[in-house]
Amino acid sequence: MADLLMIEAVNDALHVELERDDTVMVMGEDVGRAGGVFRATAGLRERFGADRCVDTPLAEAGILGTAIGLCMAGFRPVTEMQYDAFSYPCLDQLITHVGRYHWRTGGGMEFPLVVRMPYGGGVRAPEMHDDSPETYYVHTPGVKVAIPSTPADAKGLLAAAIRDPDPVVIFEPKLIYRTERSEVPEGDYIVPLGKARLVRAGDDVTLVAYGAMVPLCERAADALADEASVEVLDLRTLKPLDEDGLLASVAKTGRVVIVQEAPRTAGFGAELAAILAEKAMLDLRGPVLRVTGYDVPYPYWKLEDAYMPSVERIVDAVRKLLAF
Amino acid sequence: MARVAEGGHELRRVLDEDREVDGLGEQELLELYRSMVLLRTYDERSVIYHRQGRIGTYAIFWNHEAMQAGAVHALDDEDWIFPSYRESAIGLLRGMPAATVLHWWRGHPAGWWNPSDYNLASICVPIATQVPHAAGLAWGKKLKGERACALTFFGDGATSEGAFHEGANFAGVMQAPLILFCNNNQWAISTPVSAQTHAEALVDKAVGYGIPGVRVDGGDVLAVYEATREAVERARSGGGPTFIEAVTYRAAPHATADDPRAYIDLERVEQEKQNECLGRYERYLRRLGALGDDLDKTIKDESAELMRAGITAAEAEPDADVGLLFEHAYANPPASFQAELAELRRILGGDVG
Predict the structure, then answer these.
(1) To which CATH superfamily is domain B26-320 assigned?
(2) What digits encode the pLDDT tens for the residues A225-238?
(3) pTM (2 decimals)?
(4) ipTM above 0.90, yes or no
């Protein structure tokens, strides 16, 4: 075990996977010489060479598009989109090709590529450095999506994504890149896609979250300690979703508050609420509530604390639900 | 580093000059002719099949056969092709059954193929998005130290797309062994090339990527072959990508759903039809003495027979099982698919609750 920050765990996973499989390569803007703007890829170019940690032209669609061709040539490219809101040009390739190519070949070819990107707000950054775009990606057939909330999961989910035969998008919550520190297994380490993590057990209400909202939910659970027994469920993978894990928790508590920092309308929380409406109706003891970002552009940072879900907003929702 | 072809915007030609191309003997010349006839037959039959309701909407490539056959003949089998939908039948030149292509246009999943079986990527329907794929494949071959190169086809309209730019730029930066083959038929559905670019010629775009560009007569199969062969040699010898602008004219509708009378110059279309690429090449071969009536008939009969067999096989294909809705969406599918498929089968089976 090593005591690592989340960003160090990402870096560790990349070192292990590039060492383990020489078809794995890292590519993106500033990932080589600079080691990435968050230093996620630091040391890779020196260790594995400029052909396996490639500084690409500044072209997100080109990065993902060439990654498809690299898959066809037998590589497993791990692409980095420098920031959440800079990833939008790559959606062209993601939607038109990444999610369809395996299907289009009748299963003949695999496209084991990874898109990883820092995402989310709360970091006092300029415009377009704060978005939570997971819904666009989750909605795309043929693509899997994972979002870690701990250093160990950041390593294990990324390693699982690199080894997965399907395209996987990993959103790394940049807010907690350097605030979450924990024990991370050394060397080979996998966290399987599609398995939620029970962060803490409780009996009265379940907080469902992913990414940077997970530690926030833990703080909300602490704040509610005298009032309610709060369960916190970290989904870890949005697609494939651990529906059994979700339903088991709700069967126990009967109350659910979903927390996401993305805008509200048609966000992933809406999908979770729909699943609960379809499959957990008789377990529910109150309405499924959502604490989310608002349906507005992500604000300039003097206003971002008001936009982001907070302990107070979560506590408020839980109290409302308990009083239902 | 930028090197636009010598001769600037002049179109390179072979047929009209009655030139011969080094290394092409009579057998090779006739193989090119067979390929063009095969493509022409596929295209003309497809328009008829569409009218008969036997295939769906179809993108016509009549008068594009010289570009397609000329370029592919300059490749080896190990080299990869990344087609647009205008080159939907290019697999025929790599031994793909006609039925497979017909399945694709019939909307049947039997029209899927494994690209590595033919070194031929899937037909790309969105415009220009295959260009970065080709750049990535070519770059990957270079990284692996393999000899193969890649060629991607796209149209004049595609050069306005960001994907073209990003792919071409990547290929230039990585010095990927790639041939960027632009089929400039001067129309993107109803939009003329003059509305796509203010550049004097599309080949000028090569300068911006620091790669060589060459402009050829796209109706001249031997000019296309010669230019592509040079680009392939450059790619194999580490010289990086080449942009080829092949200039022709779309003398047919964009697709079976298009009526170009609303926008096209019909007189010009008639002129182009008189000078269409297959007839030009046939006359050249006859002047050379390489082709006579009997051989011509044999070649055309072979292609017609191949298409008859193709459509027969395509129409004999059983309906696709609904399991194929789900089966290849993921290599490692989510558990939910099983329940969804079971429910769908129940309802399709008439067992509606």
Answers:
(1) Thiamin diphosphate (ThDP)-binding fold, Pyr/PP domains (3.40.50.970)
(2) 999 999 999 999 99
(3) 0.97
(4) yes
